[in-house]
């Protein structure tokens, strides 16, 4: 390989999770026939094949929102200058988490699974996909006002408020003050209790449930809930199953450019960078 010759990036399909539906690429032609808002970004070759300009952020936004609706019945709006999620990679991440929970003997079909998405972004894509595809529940944190408003709107527009809690936090908050939030704890506890009650006819724990609920109801939302390891203390609250975030994060455009230059073996990106 000559000095000037660039290494071609590997095809991502072979790295996709076995259960990822995008191992088979979507049909742009079908998408264009169903979604008028997608058509302006399509071009056609002499053989009638549809092509998309992945360097155009508007084309990426149209592709993502149309696929979310077509494949997951999700109505999502992504504001300009906000991150446009790549669905195959997002699904890979969620399916890997599902595998980890299964391998840890932690995930059963009857379980209520609750995770935390740190920095959910405007699209709120991980919680939406998780709720719709896997039936899990997520607490989504966000520091940016525009992202928070857009994420909340996307959750409400899909009627997934019972599965997703979007929490506005300051830029110094990661988990503290989120997991212990009394309102969040109450909602998660009630979900777990509902499923347990449906799967178990044993009423021996009713008194314990009443005691925990009484404490949750009497705890102000801005007061952290107590957590203890002792079985004799009824203040033990809901334990979350996993946390996740969407790396990488850069503190500046200069840092992003530096990272690009350090990866000399990579080819040019095939899609336009988006995000805030």
Automatic annotation (TrEMBL):
SUPFAM superfamilies (UniProt xref): S-adenosyl-L-methionine-dependent methyltransferases
GO molecular function per UniProt: U6 snRNA (adenine-(43)-N(6))-methyltransferase activity
Enzyme nomenclature, EC number: 2.1.1.346
Domain of life where this protein originates: Eukaryota
Compositionally skewed regions (Acidic residues) per UniProt: 199-213
Keyword Nuclease: no
Residues that hold S-adenosyl-L-methionine according to the record: 90, 119, 142
Cellular component annotations (GO), alphabetically ordered: nucleus
Keywords: Methyltransferase, S-adenosyl-L-methionine, Transferase
Chain residue ranges for the region called Disordered: 192-232, 249-276
BP-aspect Gene Ontology terms: rRNA base methylation
Assigned protein family: Belongs to the methyltransferase superfamily. METTL16/RlmF family.
Protein's recorded name: U6 snRNA m(6)A methyltransferase
Origin species: Petrolisthes manimaculis
């Amino acid at each position: 390989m000559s000095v000037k010759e660039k290494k071609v990036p590997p095809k991502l399909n072979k790295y996709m999770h076995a259960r990822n539906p995008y191992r088979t690429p979507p049909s742009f032609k079908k998408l264009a026939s169903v979604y008028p808002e997608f058509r302006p970004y399509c071009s056609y070759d002499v053989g009638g094949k549809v092509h998309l300009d992945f360097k155009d952020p508007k084309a990426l936004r149209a592709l993502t929102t149309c696929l979310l609706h077509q494949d997951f019945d999700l109505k999502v709006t992504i504001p300009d200058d906000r991150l446009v999620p790549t669905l195959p990679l997002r699904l890979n991440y969620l399916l890997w988490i599902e595998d980890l929970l299964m391998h840890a003997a932690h995930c059963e079909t009857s379980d209520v699974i609750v995770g935390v998405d740190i920095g959910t972004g405007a699209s709120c894509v991980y919680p939406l996909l998780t709720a719709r595809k896997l039936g899990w529940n997520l607490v989504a944190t966000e520091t940016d006002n525009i992202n928070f408003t857009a994420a909340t709107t996307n959750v409400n527009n899909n009627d997934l408020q019972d599965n997703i809690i979007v929490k506005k936090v300051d830029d110094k908050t990661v988990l503290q003050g989120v997991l212990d939030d009394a309102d969040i704890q109450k909602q998660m506890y009630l979900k777990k209790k509902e499923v347990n009650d449906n799967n178990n006819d044993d009423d021996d724990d009713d008194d314990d449930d009443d005691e925990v609920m009484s404490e949750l109801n009497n705890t102000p939302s801005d007061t952290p809930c107590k957590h203890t390891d002792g079985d004799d203390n009824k203040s033990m609250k809901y334990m979350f199953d996993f946390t996740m975030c969407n790396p990488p994060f850069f503190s500046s455009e200069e840092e992003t450019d530096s990272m690009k230059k350090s990866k000399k073996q990579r080819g040019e990106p095939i899609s336009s960078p988006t995000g805030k």
